[in-house]
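User: structure tokens for this one?
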Amino acid sequence: MRFDLSDLRLFLHIVEADSITAGADRAHLALASASARIKSMEDALGTPLLERHRRGARPTPAGRALEHHARAMLHRLELLVGDMGRYADGLRGRVRLLANTAAFSEYLPGLLGAFLLRHPHIDLDLEERPSHTILDALARRQAELGILAAHEERHGLASRPFCEDRLVCVTHRAHGDFLGRRRVRFADLADQVFVGMPSDNALQQHLVSKAAQAGQHLTVRVRMGSFGALCRLVGQGVGIAILPETAARRHRRAAALRILHLEDDWALRQLRLCAVDFDGLSPHARALADHLAPLDDAGARA
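Assistant:
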């Protein structure tokens, strides 16, 4: 019985995506090829690894055991690659980083360029996710690092401060409901029409969750794939939107926006870089962590 690393990575992609089709896409394989690989693994082990269902696939108990060992093996491989990289030029490593929408869109692009240029042998898998799902992914070792809002419980995880992020409401400058106002509560926006992000966007899911907790429903007239496009529609009077203050200020003048501070406590968020154990990271992941959230000279988190 022999599995290569590509088989194990494919299996983990499928487990993370809850879908053979999506997992094959992440592994850059045709669906037929991915299905054949999984079938070969199941035949070799003599037991099903995936339970197929109408919406995708989930691991069987045997699949969960394989997932655990596959993650441990690939983590050890990253440690090996990192250690060998000290002696051999050109040995590549890969780090997986998950981030919420604010970090993904507003803060990481300016930080990652310098890191990737300084470390040409490190590749990065970057994925946008809601904060609560990042916690689960880190605990299951589906990623080495994650950036999430500090209000989420971080049981068993180590963390470092990353940055402060504020969510604001943006409206057209002449929106009659908000003339003369500088602040607003999220609950006061329930009867407004929103311009939103895609339904699978981490920030959009966060806002839907907050509305549901208040017994409200967001009326989203149109969804846009970027903050710039969203702001242009808000500036034309199509609706209002909630987004990070950094993005709102960047587009404020061009889109003729009014920025209203949200008075809700959850609108001001401390973003933190999290890991199961910073000392146990692969050398490549540790280098990225130290770049994103450096320690000061005394060893304290900056």
